[in-house]
Write a structure and sequence with these properties.
Elements: E1 3-6, E2 19-24, H1 38-44, E3 45-46, E4 49-58, E5 64-69, E6 74-76, E7 79-81, H2 83-90, E8 96-106, E9 110-119, H3 127-138, E10 149-153, H4 166-171
Parallel strand pairs: 9-10
Antiparallel strand pairs: 1-2, 2-4, 3-4, 4-5, 6-7, 8-9
């Protein structure tokens, strides 16, 4: 099975850089295309590679790591941002019981990182708490991944299966 991590132009990226996870379209185990949907097949199979919809990176030893789904990830300062990594860091703070992040368009850096958090019982939203959350995050993730803004919500929008609907976070802010 031949796989690669590709940039926006279909070129391989260097180890450690996040890109699109792709499987060789010439692999005999890969499907031939989407049933009765040649447009979708053409959109996902380009220049001999099937783009899986995942963002990934490869470490120096050759191991692959999935960073997240391409439709959930976004760029800030030209760097792919994986919501899962940020959300895991947000939830390390004892006041946070649930969290999600979303892009907020910014003309200078592409997107600002905005976190939406649900607080546990006994915790009240405040600027001081938001800064405390950011400080905790700086101990666990790169500084450029720490959210520019933190919003507090009573709940997060979810699908019937319990998955956070990030697209709904973007459409309507559920801020206290």
């Amino acid at each position: 099975l031949e796989v690669a991590i590709l940039n926006d132009h279909g070129q391989p990226v260097v180890p450690g850089e996040v890109g699109y996870f792709a499987i060789s379209a010439y692999d005999p185990g890969l499907f031939l295309g989407y049933y009765k949907d040649p447009e979708r097949t053409t959109a996902l199979i380009q220049e001999g590679w099937f783009r899986t919809g995942d963002l990934a990176y490869q470490d120096g030893e050759g191991y692959f790591f999935i960073a997240g789904r391409a439709d959930d990830c976004f760029k800030s300062r030209g760097i792919f941002i994986s919501p899962a990594e940020i959300e895991n860091a947000l939830q390390r703070h004892p006041a946070v019981i649930e969290a999600a992040d979303r892009p907020e368009p910014d003309s200078e850096i592409g997107n600002r990182i905005c976190a939406v958090v649900v607080l546990g019982e006994g915790h009240e939203p405040s600027d001081r708490l938001a800064e405390s959350i950011r400080e905790e995050m700086r101990r666990h993730i790169a500084p450029f991944k720490v959210p520019h803004a933190i919003e507090f919500a009573r709940s997060l929008p979810k699908s019937p299966g319990g998955k956070i609907l990030r697209s709904e976070l973007t459409k309507e802010k559920s801020v206290l």
